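User: Reviewer 2 asked us to show a designed sequence for the structure in our supplementary figure. I'm pasting the structure tokens here. Could you produce the per-position amino acids so we can include them in the response letter?
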């Protein structure tokens, strides 16, 4: 089992940047594919980006070229660097850990990102 704690959310103006962090504990971090999801009010949770244990990345079309996911296996932490933020990026952002061999998935509590002038 793994516990996930997100941080780094907040209020930012359009065009600004934020970096989200997700610290994992309780299990071997390197066996998990790590991801960021988001959920805006009235909408379903959607995948933003994920990164495999080997460092392969995938992004939603809406964030390609603006967001970058990375992981530091020595610190058991995954990051989401968000640049050129838009009002439509406003959502609660959730960290996810997925173990491909078992299908188990774990979630953090979420961190609010608000993009507004």
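Assistant: Here is a per-position design you can include in the supplement:
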């Amino acid at each position: 089992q793994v516990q996930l704690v997100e941080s780094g959310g907040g209020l930012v103006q359009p065009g600004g940047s934020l970096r989200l962090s997700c610290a994992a504990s309780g299990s071997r971090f390197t066996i998990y594919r790590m991801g960021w999801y988001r959920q805006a009010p009235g909408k379903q949770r959607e995948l933003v980006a994920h990164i495999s244990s080997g460092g392969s990345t995938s992004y939603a079309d809406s964030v390609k070229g603006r967001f970058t996911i990375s992981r530091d296996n020595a610190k058991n932490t995954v990051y989401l660097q968000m640049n050129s933020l838009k009002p439509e990026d406003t959502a609660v952002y959730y960290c996810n850990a997925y173990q491909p061999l078992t299908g188990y998935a774990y979630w953090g509590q979420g961190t609010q990102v608000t993009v507004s002038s």
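For the response letter, you might also mention the following. The CA atoms of residues 49 and 59 lie 4 Å apart. The chain is about 0% helix and 55% strand.
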